[in-house]
Amino acid sequence: MGKQNNKSFSKFLVLWTGEWISSMGSGLTAFALGVYVYQMTGTAASVALVTLCAFLPSILLSPIGGVLADRFDRRLMMITGDLCSAFGLVFLLFLMLLGDPPVWQICLGVAFSSIFVSLLEPAYKATITDLLTEEQFAKASGLVQLAASSKYLLSPLIAGVLLGYMDIKAVLIIDISTFVVTVLAVLAVKKNLQAEFPAKTRQSFARELKEGWDTLVSVKGVLQLTVILSLVTFFMGFLQTLFTPLLLPFTDTQTLGTVESVSAIGMLIGSLFIGMFSIKGQYAKVLAVSLGFAGVFFALVGLTTNLYFIAAAGLLFFAALPFINTCADVLIRKNIAAEAQGRAWGIIGILSQLGYVTAYAVAGVLADHVFNPLLRSGGSLDSSVGKVLGTGEGRGIGLLFIVSGLLIVIVAVIVPRIKSIRALEQQH
């Protein structure tokens, strides 16, 4: 049994390596596009719109991807998602070879790529359950977050340097090449990744989607935990969308990439800790404490224009995220039957990440038309809050971060008082 478990974990590591490389490539493109669009338009709203288009399709379609992951070979789903997603980047590259495309064309390219990510994510998450034992879930979750953190840790630093020597077209070519590596990693795993479930009558998409929803709501704590995660992703969406407009008014592109990468070292530290030592029970308590720390450090990111302080606060904020995600992941995964994992993760994906979608939709408007005007010279808070936070372009975003961080702390205080979430540790 021990050898079999080690063999399964080795196969997981092959898949994980491919997704890690893909995540780094996606991070290069995300950083480069954010800088490109902001420098072209000068507005946070444009950056937010591109981010929304890159994210929304994969979220809205994730339930369908979840049904497909339970119907078909999950390896095939991952390969199809990777390859077709690359076509959106090829489209962007073609447009940029012809000149500077308008924002709407950039949105079209990233949206097309995002559509096929919806095939990849539920299949990948369900595959983890297929391959691993319950004891390996937390360790695997830490490693998955470690791979995902690369887009915040390594990618901004690399992209910031690359943009000093080459343009965005070269960055897109690098990202496109990572999809080939990912597909080869999936193919290298010989075992068919579709779980061997008992045969059953094929049902309609609508029926299977409903089964996924029924699975989710049948365990009350899972649904409530998903809602909590959606609130967290709402505030995370502000950080992802507005970090560039926060810093670029007083620093350059390379420094921006360095600060983002240094901040994301925290996610690396947290993920490595969980990957090496795991978390031994008390997931609900660890979740609440981690949320509290994340909220405090989120607020501190917006407190000043001192780059060292921002990087340190960002590092501590990102260090808390792997603990939040791992605790939620394990509590959910333990309480959902294996044969329903694909559908359930599809539904959970769209619900938990609706916060991102909402944030991407409103962040630019709030920054450009509400918070930044408050702290410009002559703004309503110029002579009060401006004395502490400073005034000028981007300082209103700092105020928005402080408010968001305090609201996350409130969520952290509420979580331990929800009995159904605490009960997830006993249910199985």
UniProtKB/TrEMBL annotation:
Boundaries of every Major facilitator superfamily (MFS) profile domain copy: 11-422
Stored Gene3D superfamilies: MFS general substrate transporter like domains (1.20.1250.20)
Transmembrane segments: 12-38, 44-69, 76-97, 103-122, 143-165, 171-189, 222-242, 262-279, 286-303, 309-332, 344-367, 397-415
Its membrane topology: Multi-pass membrane protein
Location in or out of the cell: Cell membrane
Entry annotated with the keyword Transmembrane: yes
Alphabetical UniProt keywords: Cell membrane, Membrane, Transmembrane, Transmembrane helix, Transport
Top-level taxon in the UniProt lineage: Bacteria
Pfam families: MFS_1
InterPro entries in UniProt: MFS (IPR011701), MFS_dom (IPR020846), MFS_trans_sf (IPR036259)
Key word Transcription present: no
Name of the protein in its database record: MFS transporter
Species per Swiss-Prot/TrEMBL record: Paenibacillus borealis
